[in-house]
Amino acid sequence: MRFINSNLYFMLILCLAFSAGAQDSVSVWEIKRSIAAQQDYELTTSSGLFLLQSPIKRTSFSILTYEGFGGGFKAAQEGRKNSRVSFESEGIRTIKKLKLWGSFSYQFEQNDSIRFSHRLNNADPAPFYYGSQKAVHYSRTDYQIKTLATLPIVAGISAGLGLDYGMGDHYSTNDPRAALKHFRLIAKPELIYNKAEFAIGLNGTYGYGQNEYQVDYRNKEYYESASYPEYLNYLVNGYGMIRDALDFSDRVFVINRKWKGAGLQSQAQLFGGTLKASLAYLLREEDFERGNSSGKYASRENYGTFDLHKWDAMLKYNNDSWAATLTWQKQEGKEYNIRLGGNNYLYHTEKADFNLINTRMLQQKKFELGLLLSVKNENQVDGNYEIKRDRSMAGLGVMAGREWINNSLNNLTTKFSLAYHVPFQLDFRYNPEKLTSFITQVVLPDAAMDKQGYTTLNAAAFYRRKAKAFNWQFGLEGEYLQAEKASAISELTKYLPGHQAYHFRLSAALFF
Predict the structure, then answer these.
(1) Which letter, b or e, does each residue of 232-271 get, where b requires 16 or more Cβ atoms within 10 Å of its Cβ?
(2) Rounded Cα–Cα distance for residues 46 and 355 (Å)
(3) What's the pLDDT tens digit per position in 212-239?
(4) CA-CA distance, 48 to 265, in Å (whole number)?
(5) Quick one: three-class SS letters along 273-324?
(6) CB 201 within 8 A of CB 191
(7) What values do phi and psi take at 311, rounded to 5?
(8) pLDDT value of residue 1
């Protein structure tokens, strides 16, 4: 914990350094007024080229949020009720020819009644992690700091460097008390060719990280006891469990990660607007090792490896009235299980999103209308337990944003969106003779949701107030999901967890 506190102090000092003297928040004020402008700002901080090309010279803001999640229509490894508190601060500074962006974020999350999910992120396709049948209370604490800098070298040529450092610890508060510590450091050097009407950048990515799981029990009666099987920690692999319980030699499990990749970004002035594009490839290599609870890895053993290949592409055009964005992402993962002597778990996902936003003035206030389109395919195969889950879904939605007040001191905006998601393909297969508690509690309930179409409604309101020294923003956001009650796979109907879900977010932001 001393290690975490010292790093937290360092991050806060660096965050304050970015914020100091950044009193011009007019640009942030304008960004927050518009959905399209907010999307463009998020792209600005993703690469050195887009940061260099951004007209923002200096800005800074901090935001504190509280979020709540609940409802029955959720993945089986999600908590029954979840809450999250987070703080984030970021800013842009220009010091002569050097342009800097930095951000610091802290997040504390609590999950109530969570099963088979002692891992960093429930959406992470990594195939090895711990989990118990007992629905435990789970907490996660994460810190992240990101920096990005660009500096001209010679006329028309600039260099950029991005750093991404993250760390945290997670644990369950019920027996067994399982702890997860993690960190990562990713560097992204970049070379940029920059002219008045056109710019192109080439970057590389390299990083290292580690997740360390430590499993222990506070009460001896739970020590691999057959009398309390719900408390036993299982080592999950893909869609199954490779151990029924953990003995002494399995008390420590380590995931070593390496990132390698390359990317290309470009920006051009065309047709009275700005065209931005990016293409990136990233390889995440993982190896999984186990040891004993002393942490010395006396019985160190390699369980397996996992390679995740990821491709991303983006095309965005915007002018004074229109903003259009097209994104595409593909991931391919393959695990080699040393114990089984082969490729056991395969992962594939591919998705594309398109949104089109028109901005116009209505009674001297901004009014935005948007169209949202999405399509996604995801496929997971576990050879050991003979499970295949291949599903596809498409979504169509509309959104609207409206300013109600905009004067020298006050600004009030609202945002609404409505979308419908329909499943159009499902291929689910499993072997009833190989059922385990993980399959019946996780895999089958999730597969039962795959044939459920659902509708989402989002609503948000933001009030901004300018003061002499600081500018404030207060936000209230909510999302409600309603799933259809029909069209489930007949034999899986009994596993359906529910038909509604909700998510709300309260925030207070300071621009300085």
Answers:
(1) bbbbbbbbbbbeebbeeebbbbbbbbebebebbbbbbeee
(2) 19
(3) 887 765 555 554 555 556 666 777 877 7
(4) 9
(5) EEEEEEEEEEEEEEEEEEECCCCCCCCCEEEEEEEEEEEEEEEEEECCCEEE
(6) yes
(7) -120, 135
(8) 41
Exposure string of 411-432, with b = 16+ CB inside 10 Å and e = fewer, is bebebebebebebeeeebebee
pLDDT for 3 equals 41
Q: Cα dihedral sign for 163, 511, 68, 444? A: negative
The span from the CA of 99 to the CA of 51, in Å, is 8
Peptide bond into 176 cis (omega under 30): yes
- 170 close to 139: Cβ distance less than 8 angstroms: yes
Measured at the alpha carbon of residue 143, what is the angle toward residues 184 and 310, in degrees to the nearest 5?
Answer: 45
Q: Which residue has the tokens 């002499």?
A: 468
Structure tokens at 384: 């050991």
Helix (H, G, I), strand (E, B) or coil at 2: helix
Q: Give residue 20's pLDDT.
A: 47
CA distances from 442 to 24, 131, 138, 287, 425 (A): 50, 11, 17, 24, 21
The answer to whether residues 150 and 127 touch, using CB atoms and an 8 Å cutoff, is: no
pTM of the prediction? 0.89
Of 106, 114, 176, 175, nearest in space to 141 by CA? 106
Over the range 123-150, which residues count as b (16 or more CB within 10 Å of their CB) and which as e? eebbbbbbbbbbbbebebebbbbbbbbb
Give CA torsion, residues 442, 448, 452, 455, to 10 deg: -20
- Please name which of 381, 398, 397, 399 lies closest in space to residue 389, comparing C-alpha atoms: 381
Collapsed DSSP state (helix, strand, coil) of residue 6 = helix
Whether 120 and 211 have beta carbons less than 8 Å apart is answered as yes
* Beta bridge mates, 61: 90, 511
Query: What is the distance between the alpha carbons of residues 390 and 380, in angstroms, rounded to a whole number?
Result: 6
Splitting the chain (512 residues) into consecutive groups of 10 residues, what average pLDDT does each group show? 46 48 54 81 91 87 94 87 94 92 94 81 80 80 95 94 94 66 95 92 96 67 55 74 55 87 95 94 91 57 89 95 96 87 89 96 90 96 89 96 88 95 89 86 87 94 86 94 75 80 95 80
